Amino acid sequence: MDDPPSIFINSSLLNTRPVHTGDIMAAGAAVTVPVSGFPPPHAPPPSPCTTAPPPCYPGVTCVDALSTTRGFLCGGCPTGLDGNGTVCDDVDECAASAGVDALLACDPLTTCTNLLGGFECGPCPAGTSGSGDTACVDIDGCATAPCFQDTLCEDVAWPGVGVVCGQCPDGYDGDGRVCEPKQCEPGPCSLDPFVPCTTLPGGGRTCGLCPVGYVGDGVVCDDIDECETNNGGCHALTSCTNTPGGRLCGDCPIGFTGSGYSKCYNSTQCAEDYGGCDPLVECVDTSQGPRCGACPAGYKGDGYLGCVDIDGCLESTCFPGVPCEDIPAEEDGIHGTGHRCGACSTGMIGDGIHCTDDMCFWLNGGCDPSVACVNDAAAPGGRMCGACPPGYTDEFTGQASEQCLDADGCLGAPCPGGRMCSDVAAVEEAAFGAAYMCGPCPQGFLQVGEGCVDVDECAVDNGGCWVAPADDRVKAPCVNSPGGYTCGSCPAGMRGSGAGKCVPATTCAVENGGCWVGDGAATGLAASCEDNAYGPAQCGECPLGFEGSGASSCVDADGCGPEPCFPGVACTDVPAPGEGFTCGSCPEGFRGDGEMCTLCRPRVSIQYTTAVQGIVKRTGWHRGERVMIGGENQGLDHPACVNIEVCSLFPPRKAPSSRFPSTSLSGVQQGKYFPGG
Questions:
Q1: Which domains does the chain show, CATH number per domain?
Q2: Which UniProt keywords are present, listed alphabetically (predicted)?
């Protein structure tokens, strides 16, 4: 019977389910279990991840893991939480112990609120801009120019808010934000008598009316001589004395009672109840009784029934819209109009009777806020703009003080010697005491007094230009110029930068310093070369076997040039790098090395000494074997010629003076010649 089939099972999967047949081996080992050995099938156990409540923290991934004790694995806790996945606790990112992540995320000026799994940054505080989770930046309150023109603005650093404006410019009043021209300080209006000055909205000013007893435009008030008109309102019988702003009435004459300011009446009929006349009229005694005069100017009615003050404004001479004030008749002796006109309407100027448009009312008449605007019908636009204040100018605009700009104190280059000029702001000129400030002298100049003197940089260390380390006479030229200097070229025979370093133009290490170098058969040969620290390399002699100039050209020296071989013997030059020459064989009948040859003949006697002497004298060449003349050895070896016959066949030639000394044979006597002897 065949064996039942078997199944291979990994024993590491058997630790949660028992095996009923066979032995359980160590985890990871293989177990072979017959199919017939399994128990009846059972339902698989439920997944731990599906139990209620879930074993992992909400939102954390759960994975079945039969190999673990619990049978499941939990993933990592969500962001902002810390734990093992089963239990996750909130991390307080706002706490200092949590690290610096949140502290860096929230700006230090904001609040940090911990949330489950995260945190929240509060808004940036007042006075700053930005986002609390990025950066809070102090708001520069001065960026919007909240202060008045030319008024200093200082931003209030956080935690403060806003700006601090400086004082208003000269001639202005205000808090620095809003500055109004001091149009009335000092007042342009009359001070004696005093006339009030009123600053108008938008700039400009207006003077009030001259006081009673004066006439003028408020800027100038002239005293009125009230006595010139109607006796100043005094009774005709009294005197009138003019005073500043008024008049004095004298006393009634003798025989009259009353007051010079009102009436003088007769002390008889008019004495009793003033004759029944109005106190304002004259009472005259007549034979018919007292007679009442007419009511004075400013009154209506008659002296008998009474005089009533006329409302002077009923016939007003005031400009339309100007308020009218009735003047009591007793005071009207000054003007005689019965009324007084008030100030012209807003936007107009005048005495109340005659009013014209105030061209300076709106926006200071178009003049710069820092200047005064004066109405002038004859001027363009009906007004005149005052001069710009010190430190300001209208030269840049050409608009006649309609726009005053900060004058550039550096115009015209006021600083001497090329010193830098810095303009001083007009608002600071008074405190600084000048419209400009001179800076230091430019580079390369030295301040002497108020001016600048050029510094000769070349006077010290050659201006930094190259100088030979061992010989300061060898250097690149330094040329001084205003404010600086220039380094010239390296000295002759050198190359490089005079401002940096100069080196010899040629060196023996490079192409033999330009000296002769052989080629072809002479390859590898060269003239001698010697380096020069402060110039080109120096060329020496040509190599052995050559002649010429080592600096230009070396050629093979011809050793046969001086004809060193015996006459008739061929001379062959030794090619360089060898030197010298080689001589061929001696002629037939001679022996030797080619350079020196001797005659091969038996010993003979010199019979013709006179002839030999002549030959020797003629040639000056004494060469050969020993010559015995007169029984004495004359030091002449190997004569070339023995007798006349031989010498005619081999004529002698002049030998080089360096070879043998020349010996005179005058007085030669008969002797013997022994060839080879």
A1: 6-37 (no CATH), 48-121 (2.10.25.10), 141-179 (2.10.25), 224-309 (no CATH), 359-407 (2.10.25), 416-453 (no CATH), 457-504 (no CATH), 511-556 (no CATH), 601-673 (no CATH)
A2: Disulfide bond, EGF-like domain
